[in-house]
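We emphasize that the prediction below concerns an isolated chain of 285 residues; any contacts that depend on oligomerization or on bound cofactors are therefore not represented. The input was used exactly as deposited, without trimming of termini.
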Amino acid sequence: MPPHSTGTPHDISQIGIFMSVTVPDVTRRGRPGEPVFFNLIRSEWVKARTVGVTAWCLLALTALAVGVAALIALKEQTQVPRSLPVLVNLSQLGLSIGQLAVVVLAATSIGSEYNSGMIRTSLVAVPRRARWLLAKAFVVGALALVTGMVLSVISFAIVYASVPADLGTFADPQVIRAVLGVGLYLGVLAVLSLAVTTIVRGTAGGVVVMFVLICVVPVLVPGSALSSMERFLPVGMLPPNAGLAITQVAPMFGGLAPWVGFAVLCAWTVAAMAAALYRLVRRDV
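Result of the prediction step, given as a token string:
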């Protein structure tokens, strides 16, 4: 189906960038007339960094992570020194709130293509739709992973430096895993958000579904007949959902072990991506 011709000049420039990046070297590998996977990653990276919402989402995530950590550091200077696991959890509060910015970033990366109709042009350039969606997932996931790790290290350093007493070394393997685990969590969260938005075919729908999953469902489950399933929920603002297990120094009370919880989150994400790929490949846009 040909693309609509009602795009703005910005949409047209995006199309030009996409075609110029993906068209060269299209016959080196795979089906004739298709770009290689590395070029798909390059094109998705170009689109991600030239869309304004990417910068705004990363700026919001940074402001929340560093700002909340700075406020906590100011308060901790007047408090009795806490344990190292508690300090790690406190340093992650801003990132826990900021995960919604990651959801918006990932949802917009695919939802904007549905909303503008540019997805038709993208899929004309890449007939093998699964490769195109996987390239987009790689870029979005990697961006969230690296940003999350960097901000988590900075936030923890700010809070740790505010404590006058020596609470132990931050080089403890469990502390390192918990601090860097925030990046792993946000990276997989971004891919999950991308998959959900692909299934519902729209930015607003994807953001709403993820918001309910993160903020509403964890509030409703405790105390209900499904309370025993709380630890298997993929994401949330606070433990003991499975995703946040990787960000805790010590095992969560009533939750899964760190790597087991992360594996559960990955399983949810793989299932969502499988559904998204099926819907994208089997149905018209």
